Amino acid sequence: MATTTQPQTGARPGAGLSKEEILRYSRHLIMPEVGMEGQLKLKNAKVLLIGTGGLGAPLGLYLAAAGVGKLGLVDFDVVDFTNLQRQVTFGTSDVGKPKSQAARARLSNLNPDIQIESFEAQLTSANALELFKDFDIIVDGTDNFPTRYLVNDACILLGKPNVYGSIFRFEGQVTVFGMPDGPCYRCLYPEPPPPGLVPSCAEGGVLGVLPGIVGSIQAMETIKLILGNGENLIGRLLLFDALGMKFRELKLRKNPNCPMCGTHRTIHKLIDYYEFCGVRGEEAPVPDLKVPEITPRELKHRLDRGDDLFVLDVREPHEFQICNLKGHLIPLGELPRRVPELDSSREIVAHCRSGKRSADAVDFLRKAGFRKVLNLKGGILAWSDEVDPSVPKY
Amino acid sequence: MAVKVIIPTPLRPYAGRQDSAEVKAATVGEALTGLTTQFADLRKHLFTDDGKLRSFVNVYVNDEDIRYLAKENTPTKDGDTISIVPSIAGGCS
Lengths: 394, 93
Prior knowledge:
The complex is a heterodimer of chains A (394) and B (93).
Chain A: E1 2-5, H1 19-24, H2 26-29, H3 35-44, E2 46-50, H4 56-66, E3 70-74, H5 99-110, E4 115-119, H6 128-132, E5 137-140, H7 145-158, E6 162-168, E7 171-177, H8 185-188, H9 201-204, H10 209-227, E8 236-241, E9 246-251, H11 273-276, E10 293-294, H12 296-304, E11 309-313, H13 317-322, E12 328-329, H14 335-338, E13 347-351, H15 356-367, E14 373-376, H16 379-386
Parallel strand pairs in A: 2-3, 2-5, 3-4, 5-6, 10-14, 11-12, 11-13, 13-14
Antiparallel strand pairs in A: 1-4, 6-7, 7-8, 8-9
Chain B: E1 2-6, E2 20-24, H1 28-38, H2 43-46, E3 57-61, E4 64-65, E5 81-86
Parallel strand pairs in B: 1-5
Antiparallel strand pairs in B: 1-2, 3-4, 3-5
């Protein structure tokens, strides 16, 4: 499962710095806050990155460049074309490759003097403690609630710092959990939101630079922890609003009744985090609504035949601009008050990007008394696959 | 007393896309009630069916967590800023 890249220039862990290393890190070495002592601390440090995606990209790049002696990379995912907008570790030629391996290749090219270990696996309650034990600091750059609670609990059980960052659209949160006397993730949020209530990045979108900024702050906190210098974000939650370009700071207190790090701990081992977060946490697929459907091919056939069909597009106006099937645009959220725009005597085909929102629209319209209303199965994505490949997918 | 409530990104779609709102309130509870009266869609995101603040939504008066003050009864004064900070998980793999 683990693949390791060993240092290539003969630098031995624990030893001093080679001539090449002194040159490479000279901008650190001439700063009194780092110096030779600090650079050797970096060289002897072992940091595990959970996730090599949006947050993991700047984390990996900066920590490797800074000379952190051993970097672990945990990711089970493969590089997707839509990742390239923000996951700057990867190049176009990496699409389709396992992320942990592509990241290892990129980082070992950036700094051949460090040891990089990649774990192409999903972090689970069964492997977390074993994986974490060889590292000094764990950095959480994951994208889902079950893994965040798992990382937190494993760090508390092993007494390791957890450098936490999370993002949504153009907003980020950063802090350091798991320090002696400091709070943990469960002190901040005792429970996760129920599945489906908080949209994921895939659904909600994210501004590409945002993980770059938040991940860089995590990298800075990690380096400060290693150097033992400066003031860390312990007991402080840093909030970043990229749109307003504002940083704010909130007090984060250790909860004396915390089930994980409080005085009377009730959790003594790792649990089933998918169950804790409600089946599949943030990624929980909402069960498909059973509504009458039409396939893209059938729709094309019927439109070509000249059938009187009213195509209703329930996406948002900014999505309509990306591509459209020349339908009548009423965003799902506006449908209840714009029902009068629709003629219930005509046959209506509702569509969205993937068929999920339009299923809700069909369900709503049928309950409102519309009899002849169908959902375009698979939405514009399926239309692009099955009927017209010139329609872009997004 | 006028207080400013900062609405986080994930909840803005339920609050007319605004990033903040001014409400008149003497306590945090009154401020949140005022806010959810103004934006009814916000209610289910902030409160459970039996009217309790959801456990994955934290509320701060200025920089202090109301769980360590008087919770919803925490008094507010003119010019205070209330922050709603829900849990977000994104790292974007």
